Each structure stands twice: as C-alpha cells, then as structure tokens.
Amino acid sequence: MQSLTPRLIQAAFSPSVRTRLLVGTRRYHSQAAGDINAGPLNGVRILDLTRVLAGPFCTQILADYGANVIKVEHPQGGDDTRLWREEGEDVLWKPEAKHTSLYFSSINRNKRSIAVDMKTEKGKDIILKLAARADVVVENFIPGKLDKMGLEYDALKRVNESIILASISGYGADGPYAQRAGYDVVGAAEGGLLHITGEPDGPPTKPGVGLMDICTGLYLHGAIVSALLARERTGMGQKIDTSLFESTISILANVGMSWLNLGKEARRWGTGHPTIVPYQAFKTKDSYLVVGAVNNRQFQTLCQLLENPRLAQDPRFSTNDARVQNRKALIPLLNDQFVMRTTNKWLEIFHGSGMPYGPINTLENVFSHPQALARKMVVTVRQDETKSGDVKVLGMPVKFSGSKPSIKSGPPALGQHTDEVLQELGFPPETISQLRHDRIIY
Question: Is 213 labeled as catalytic in the residue annotation?
C-alpha cells in the first residue's frame, strides 16, 4: 500500500480522487476544494446527532475546519445546553430568545440547525435522506438507541455504503457497562481521574470544565479525520466508537503506567508533581505563581533567583531524586520565600531566566493576555439572538498556513435552517408545511 505523502494528503479530498475511488457510492459537493480559505475539510458533510458537550465539541472542531455540519435537534427544546444559562446571563439575550445560552454557543458555531423528531417514521426518513448525502454521522445516544429508531449502522449503510458512523457513549459500545448513561464527572470518577485530582489532604476535586467530555470530543474528531483518509484509500466507510470512560483511562499517562508496571497506587498531589520537585503553585504576597525546576540545573537557577544559592548545595535537595524524597522539607522553605514578594515582582525576577514559571491568571487576565490577543483566541461573531447582535467566542487553538479554518457563523437558533436543509433535499414547500403542522419539524 502506498504511504500517504504530503501531496497525496493535500489531494485527499479533491473531487477527482473521490470519484476515482468511490464512483457510484457517494454524492459529491459543489464547494471549491481548492479554496484555501474554506478550511481543510471543505466539502465534507457531517450529520450531527449529538447533544450536550462531547459530541457538539467534536463536530464544532470539524465545522471550524470547513466541514458542512448539519445539527439535528429535537423540536421541543433542542439540545439540552440551550437551556443551561448561568445566573445573570439573561441580560445578554433578547426576551424572545428562549432556546439559547452561552454554554450552547461555546460548542455549536459554524453549524446549521434542523429540528426533527427522529422517533417518528417521517422524521427517520428525513435523517436517512440526510445520511445518504453525508460523509459522517456523529451520535452520542446510549448504545442500541439508534437501532431502536431504525437508524443503526446497517440502516445507514443501506442508503450510503461509504458512510462513517462515529459514536460517543459513557462506557463504549459493548461490555457490561455499555447501557449506562455517560456523564463527564462519572467518567472522570470511574476512570480514575478524580482519584488523582485534588489536594493531598483533601477530597477528590472535579476539574473546572467538563474535561473528559472535551477530551473525548478531541479524540473522536481525530478519529473521524483518520477514517475519512482511510476511506480515500479503501473506498469503504466504517463504524468507530469511543467513550468517556476509555478516554479518561487513556489520559492517566505515566500515573496509569506506574500502576500497570509497578503496582503503585496513585495519590493526589494538588498542583504538585509525583516525580518532579519543585513543580507546583506557590502562594505569593498577593496571589499565586507556578514554578518548576525539571532538572538540577534549573533548581540551581531557582535558588539563585530566590537569593538562596546554598539551598542547591544541601544534599537533601541537590538532585531531583533527593528533592522528591525530601519534598516535605523543601516545599515549606520555598513557600516562605515566595510569600515575601508579589506575583508581579516575581515575574520581573524570573523574566529571561529560562525557568518554567507563570501566574495563575483570572479569566480577566487570560482574555486580556497579549499572547491570547496576538493569537486571536477571542473572536466576535454574529449572533442575532443577543441584544447587541453579536457574541464573543473562544478562538481556534490550531493555526494552518494553507487551508485556513475560520469562524464563519455564530451558533444557530433552534431549527434555524430546517426549511433550507429540507429544500436542499428536494422537499416541496407544501410538504415542509405539512411536516411542521404535524410537529415532525420545527
């Protein structure tokens, strides 16, 4: 099998390559594949049946990269996160905007929304028609739920033999826990992350965002792109699935490896590190500063900056192994010195030192950070449902020199594109009106 050279990868989604490999099995799209401003996934169609966080985060990445993402929502309320407004958020939205929130807006930009009751026969038929034109279907129902609706992988393959079905669940498609619902904090608990997160003498602590939902979405987006590339070689689609539980286990990294190979149970270290000392947050006179010394040379530099060079010569601290063994003696000594100055003063002292260091920023400081602004990590997009007519969203963390992703549109209103998408499928206006009358669509 010929390897994928950069030139082959660049051509992977061109209509000519698709036609040669998959003639008669797929429908192709009219977007110009050579438009570098359309994104690397320009021309790829994603049917998004997901809701809440992991799935929508995954499909938003694909949408940012240029894929045409159609988000399917239930006519009664839509994605659960549309109603997840935090206290005080109502001041942002127009009074008539009942089905949107900042939470929803954070993971659903660049998509079109179609509201369809998939549990009805006519609703199912609409989904199958959309699947016939799609490259990928993404879903996060409990395993087996699509089967009950007549939308399982085999049913999708009957209308589109090269379809890729990408699934997210709590525990995976099979195994004794397959039928359990998936929730971020439960996945983090059962997968061991909460066991190692928190202060040494405190209870388990949840990360401040839905980390395992987000990690699972990241895993799946990469798997989807890999499946698309595999299909360009073989002409065949496939089913891929992942879960919150498995994603959590996979990111245990060195901690998991220590248990597997040494039988060593993990513990909570707060901001500290099990095998590097010092490498943690220290209280300053007015806030906190994260500082690390990942080798002996850096520890000597640290002691110089702290104006205590003799500390580096102390045999209890002269090597990293010794510092790990004598952590309880060293950290209080460092605490006593860091607390003597403000964070800004320490930043001045550490500037240009080559040391790992940085403040624990508030969100105000994060979003005014000169590097965040230079790298365009804050983007304003059109959002008709806000009083101002726009909304600020988080920027894309990956930059491309060629096929550039972009944020072309804000998050859609519930069912905003239902008529548009059905017309693309060939539905006449009178049929669309009847479907709406029958509450099949919104």
Answer: yes
